[in-house]
């Protein structure tokens, strides 16, 4: 008689984890379409495949750029933005916030190190607000889905929001606010990467060192798979949006050029967070259905500021009043950005 006591059985938790992954969600969506509306299955797949193929050139360039930045150790250049006078630090932090090649895990120990070294909260807030909004891959993905004017506009507003928040916090600190902003115990990070180094210098000719070549190859593979799975999901969702959501409904809620649609888009965008790789394709579909450009910009900025990694980075290091200030500045900045983009 065969002993079955050690026969491995599939774990429900493992199965659920696979189903909750982007690939699992894509399969479930396509199965649902095949069962409920089989005539539209091929149209959905074709729409997503064509959109993904159009964005492929941006994905390749973005992955190459991000891998290069990681392999060379360019993050030390960002650390140097937090040196010197406070005004210069705020400006530099807002600028570098959009260029930082950090994953959401690395931001926490990076900022913890800066605060421990005495970097002012105003400059850190500028970096925190700008960093989740734009980075090299996000810029290229946004350009591929929404066009370069929208991508450049988002990059400009990312820096502007960083400056806005940094100088607001500086003014509040001058009046005695945030005298003790840090939590008693700081998080050491959400994974084992330990965050980027705060000293040293970049090694631009990374191919001369085997260890850096390994970093480049690893980063290229991981980021390529990451972008591919999230963009594939984004374009499948966009296909559903275009085929099943009435354009009139979207136009009524967030269409037009008034202030109200932009405010609604910002308020809805905060809790309904979509990461910076999923949001552009979906917003492209919404804009085709009648969403105004200003509302789309407000939705994207509010959603990025309220992302789980961005909020976790702030919450893990600072006290609730600083966290509330971060969210408030993000919401106000999203509305102002939407209004300005609508005017332009």
Automatic annotation (TrEMBL):
Protein name according to UniProt: Permease
Keyword terms of this UniProt record: Cell membrane, Membrane, Transmembrane, Transmembrane helix
Pfam family, one: ArsP_1
Record-linked InterPro entries: DUF318, UPF0718
Transmembrane segments: 20-39, 51-69, 89-108, 146-169, 224-244, 250-274, 295-317, 323-341
GO cellular component term of the entry, any: plasma membrane
Keyword Transmembrane helix assigned: yes
High-level lineage: Bacteria, Pseudomonadati, Pseudomonadota, Alphaproteobacteria, Rhodobacterales
Entry's localization field: Cell membrane
Family classification: Belongs to the UPF0718 family.
Membrane topology: Multi-pass membrane protein
């Amino acid at each position: 008689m065969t002993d079955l006591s050690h026969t491995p059985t599939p774990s429900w938790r493992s199965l659920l984890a696979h189903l909750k992954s982007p690939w699992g969600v894509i399969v479930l969506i396509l199965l649902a379409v095949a069962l409920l509306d089989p005539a539209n299955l091929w149209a959905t797949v074709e729409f997503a495949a064509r959109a993904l193929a159009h964005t492929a050139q941006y994905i390749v360039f973005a992955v190459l750029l991000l891998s290069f930045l990681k392999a060379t150790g360019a993050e030390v250049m960002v650390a140097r933005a937090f040196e010197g006078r406070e005004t210069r630090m705020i400006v530099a932090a807002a600028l570098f916030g959009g260029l930082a090649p950090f994953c959401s895990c690395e931001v926490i120990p990076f900022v913890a190190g800066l605060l421990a070294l005495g970097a002012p909260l105003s400059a850190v807030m500028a970096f925190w607000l700008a960093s989740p909004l734009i980075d090299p891959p996000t810029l290229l993905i946004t350009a591929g889905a929404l066009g370069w004017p929208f991508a450049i506009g988002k990059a400009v507003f990312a820096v502007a929001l960083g400056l806005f928040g940094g100088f607001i916090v500086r003014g509040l600190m001058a009046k005695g606010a945030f005298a003790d902003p840090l939590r008693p115990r700081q998080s050491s990070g959400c994974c084992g990467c330990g965050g980027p180094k705060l000293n040293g210098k970049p090694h631009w000719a990374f191919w001369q060192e085997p260890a850096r070549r390994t970093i480049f190859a690893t980063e290229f593979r991981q980021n390529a798979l990451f972008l591919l799975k999230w963009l594939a999901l984004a374009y499948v969702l966009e296909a559903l949006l275009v085929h099943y959501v009435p354009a009139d409904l979207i136009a009524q809620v967030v269409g037009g050029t008034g202030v109200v649609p932009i405010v609604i888009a910002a308020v809805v965008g905060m809790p309904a967070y979509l990461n910076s790789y999923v949001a552009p394709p979906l917003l492209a579909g919404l804009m085709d259905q009648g969403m105004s450009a200003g509302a789309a910009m407000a939705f994207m900025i509010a959603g990025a500021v309220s992302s789980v990694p961005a909020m976790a980075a702030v919450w893990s290091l600072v006290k609730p009043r600083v966290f509330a200030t971060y969210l408030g500045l993000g919401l106000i900045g999203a509305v102002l950005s939407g209004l300005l983009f609508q005017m332009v």
